[in-house]
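Data deposition worksheet. Section B asks for the primary sequence of the deposited chain exactly as it was used as input, without tags or linkers unless they were present during the calculation. Section C holds the resulting structure in token form. Section D is free text for depositor observations; keep each observation to a single sentence. Incomplete worksheets are returned to the depositor.
Section A, Depositor: J.P.
Section B:
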Amino acid sequence: MWILNKRPKALLYACFLCATLAAVAGCGLAGDAFSTLMDVDQPPKHERSSQEVSDYYNKFYATVVKKGRIKQGTTDIRAIDGLPKDGNNQPNWTMAVINGMISPRGSLDPDAEEELPFDMNVFFEAKVPLMANVIFPHSIHTYWLSCNVCHPKIFIPEAGANDVTMDEIFQGEWCGRCHGKVAFTFWPRSNCTRCHNVLKGESLTKENWR
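Section C:
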């Protein structure tokens, strides 16, 4: 076992201090270069104009409208029978709103201030290799829900903070708080594609706004 006297100890501390200061200084000087190195494979950021954003959402809604069909004779309730249907012959409420057939209120309170739908699509990478990825549209949900219905109790409003699984959704968690109950069900397959609507190969090109 080595025993250091006071002088070698002081010398050792001095060397350690100098090395630490040099490392800190080096980090400060090389910070930009390090950042550039780390970001070398990332595409350059493109700030989209309001027109580009508007064009994107117009295209998105045009796609949504095609996911329903008018089919009468599915229910004795006349008001519902005339609405567009999904693959399970249940009302496609989204298509009904976008086509102007219904205009839902944000609250049952007639004096409550109306909140405008919030245009923000969120991208979810599907964990199954061949499964199409998911686009979650805030606007379609904020037709009739306030932000605090989901945030923060069900979904933490932070990218990557919610480890969503289909098993848990089927058990009534996450999206399953509404879907399969008061919102459209998971089956048949035509309903699956209402959420899983971006093919794997298109995820980082077609949907690079995320």
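Section D:
The first strand starts at residue 69 and ends at 70.
The domain at 52-202 is CATH 3.90.10.10 (Cytochrome C3).
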